[in-house]
Specification:
It contains 21 helices and 22 strands. It is α+β, with helices and mostly antiparallel strands. The chain folds into four domains: 113 residues, 2-Layer Sandwich (Beta-Lactamase), CATH 3.30.450.20; 123 residues, PAS domain (Beta-Lactamase, 2-Layer Sandwich), CATH 3.30.450; 156 residues, Histidine kinase-like ATPase, C-terminal domain (Heat Shock Protein 90), CATH 3.30.565.10; 130 residues, Response regulator (Rossmann fold, 3-Layer(aba) Sandwich), CATH 3.40.50.
């Protein structure tokens, strides 16, 4: 069969191609085919040479034949797909290109068909590659493929979303690239050479569940858990596949859970402290009743010039300070009910000064700038003591190397503009301002946003509870006020407490003289502590009262049944072994309706409140008390001695 020169010129090149090639004349006669085409049709060229292209239709190339006939009429090049039926009956698509072949005069004489076909093994590999590509793209985990030098060659869409970078932005980067800005769980820098993928490339060891934080380009921090697996060739790792999941929300929940658990444990500790404080306060107040009571009695019998008077005064002062500390302990443990009254804050601050100096030490100097025309405020005095104490303690912690602490008071009139700068809910008006300023290390902006949050603390574990400033905030708000702060790192901090101002309060104790406080009524004293019981008897008898006593409720009830005369007053401890004071009072009043009752106790208010003795109309005297305080309260409960019957 004669082959045209233009065809012969193409044969050497076409013969070596790894694709099927076929040359057909314009008359549709097959002129030449290479070995790859012979493999495709499973026939030798001699079997089809000189035959019309239609012969291929019986060999599975029907679509191919149809495309040639259609395209050859136009004389234009064409590329596309045709269907090919394999010997096993399966049909698959093959790529086909039809190119006109021209002679030296430019006339089309033949057509070149190039068919790109894959073997079943190639098809299987392609199918697997497509399958793995689909899995790779749709995985819920981020996947990154890194070459032996650690450079990223590929990643899936999930990796792009988690890291906030496109595949193009990640391509060529390595795990040691500082732009990742990775951090450990404590947010310290995570060196790139310790990244799991780099460790796996160096050692060939797979790593699992490594947690790190990665800063996205927008500055947000995403937490991920990483697994890395080596790919080996000849036993040596030549690449690494790193998978990771976004655990930001999971970590947030875990951190919140840990925080709540820590708060719960701290609350349990505080509750235990509160219970301990209540028990200690009861015993301590009984002791202080005796100490303060007898020291007061001694003072009443000593002359002004008596050399022993100074010693008795010091004992009395020490007892009073101990009583104040006990009350503050109860307030701190939140086991004391509030008793708001009009206060002179200057007096409150002055009373606190000696204790505050002991708390902060000699390295810190205290300055006080108190406005002598300061208005009054309505608040619980013990809570105000606690506010000042907590602010001073925070100032002390901010000045570990010493410094200066200033406490100032002033009257301020705030208009709408000024209160809006403090808080949007604050109301314009007249306030008393207490300012506590230190020269410490200051507080940065991020911490200032959380400074009043419960349990928030910058102190190391064991150095603070994180309750101080949250309690301060709660007390100030409960008192109708607001708290604000100014701080500059390296300069110091100033807390400003605003409390609503009322008419100036002048503390004037009602001093009842002995003649007015005394009387001749009969008093039944019930107290289980012998020392306290003896003191109460010794304190009341000099005022003219007839005093009976009993150590418990049962003994007191029996004594009252046997006593033929009138008993004017029952003075009883609230908490007694066996029958408690409230139950005793109810039973005795059933026998003696005109009996008056005065309760006393060294327990904190939250304990005795359960017995109903803090209700309106019920007389109560907390321990410790002085002889004069006891006599005054007794006279108050009994009423005017001149109008009392059965004297």
């Amino acid at each position: 069969m004669t082959v045209a020169p233009e065809v012969l010129a193409l044969v050497p090149t076409l013969a070596s191609l790894p694709i099927a090639a076929l040359i057909i004349g314009c008359d549709g006669i097959i002129r030449w085919a290479n070995k790859r085409f012979e493999s495709l049709i499973a026939h030798d060229f001699v079997e089809i040479a000189g035959q019309n292209i239609g012969v291929l239709a019986s060999m599975g190339g029907l679509s191919l034949v149809q495309n040639w006939f259609r395209q050859s009429a136009s004389g234009e090049p064409w590329e596309g797909e045709s269907l090919w039926s394999q010997l096993d009956g399966a049909t698959r698509a093959v790529g086909m290109a039809i190119t006109p072949i021209k002679d030296s005069g430019g006339r089309i004489t033949h057509s070149l068909l190039v068919i790109t076909s894959r073997t079943p093994a190639e098809e299987d590999l392609l199918e697997k590659a497509e399958r793995y590509s689909a899995i790779f793209s749709s995985m819920a985990e981020g996947v990154v493929f890194q070459a032996a030098d650690g450079r990223i060659e590929a990643c899936n869409e999930r990796a792009e979303r988690i890291l906030g970078l496109t595949a193009d932005q990640m391509a060529g980067r390595t795990s040691v690239d500082p732009r990742w800005a990775a951090v450990h769980e404590d947010e310290s820098p995570f060196p790139g050479d310790t990244h799991p993928s780099m460790v796996t490339l160096r050692t060939g060891q797979a790593l699992s569940d490594v947690v790190m934080g990665v800063h996205k380009p927008d500055g947000s921090l995403t937490w991920i858990s990483i697994n890395s697996r080596p790919l080996r060739r000849g036993g040596e790792p030549y690449a690494v596949v790193t998978t990771f999941v976004d655990i930001t929300e999971r970590k947030r929940i875990a951190d919140e859970k840990a925080k709540l658990e820590a708060q719960f444990r701290q609350a349990q500790k505080m509750e235990s402290v509160g219970r301990l404080a209540g028990g200690v306060a009861h015993d301590f107040n009984n002791l202080l009743t005796v100490i303060m009571g007898y020291s007061g009695a001694i003072l009443n019998r000593l002359g002004v010039s008596d050399p022993l008077r100074q010693y008795a005064e010091e004992i009395s002062k020490a007892g009073a300070r101990a009583a104040s500390l006990t009350n503050q302990l109860l307030t701190f443990s939140r086991r004391q009910t509030t008793a708001p009254r009009v206060l002179d804050l200057n007096a409150t601050i002055r009373d606190s000064a000696p204790m505050l100096q002991r708390l902060i030490g000699e390295e810190i100097a205290i300055e006080m700038h108190l406005d002598e025309l300061l208005g009054g405020v309505t608040a619980d005095p013990d809570q105000i003591h606690q506010v000042i104490m907590n602010l001073v303690l925070n100032a002390r912690d901010a000045m570990p190397d010493g410094g200066k602490l200033s406490i100032a008071t002033a009257n301020v009139d705030l208009d709408a503009e000024r209160v809006a700068a403090i808080h949007s809910e604050m109301i314009a008006g007249e306030y008393v301002l207490v300012t506590v300023t230190d020269t410490g290390h200051g507080i940065d902006g991020a911490i200032r946003q959380q400074i009043f949050d419960p349990f928030f603390t910058t102190k190391e574990p064991g150095k603070g509870t994180g309750l101080g400033l949250s309690i301060v905030y709660g007390i100030v708000r409960q008192s109708g006020g607001w708290i604000d702060l100014w701080s500059e790192v390296g300069v110091g901090t100033s807390f400003q407490v605003y409390l609503p101002r009322v008419d100036r309060f002048l503390a004037t104790e009602k001093n009842v003289n002995s003649a007015r406080a005394g009387g001749s009524e009969t008093i039944l004293v019930v107290e289980d502590q012998e020392a306290v019981r003896s003191f109460v008897k010794d304190a009341l008898q000099p005022y003219g009262y007839h005093v009976m006593d009993a150590s418990n409720g049962e003994a007191a009830f029996a004594a009252a049944q046997e006593y033929p005369e009138r008993i004017h007053l029952l003075l009883t401890d609230v908490v007694l072994p066996g029958m408690n004071g409230r139950h005793l009072a109810d039973r005795l009043r059933a026998l003696r309706p005109d009996l008056k009752v005065l309760f006393t106790s060294g327990y904190p208010n939250d304990v005795i409140a359960k017995h109903g003795v803090l209700e309106d109309g019920i007389s109560y005297l907390p321990k410790p008390f002085s002889p004069e305080g006891l006599a005054t309260k007794v006279r108050e409960v009994l009423g005017d001695a001149s109008k009392s019957a059965d004297m």
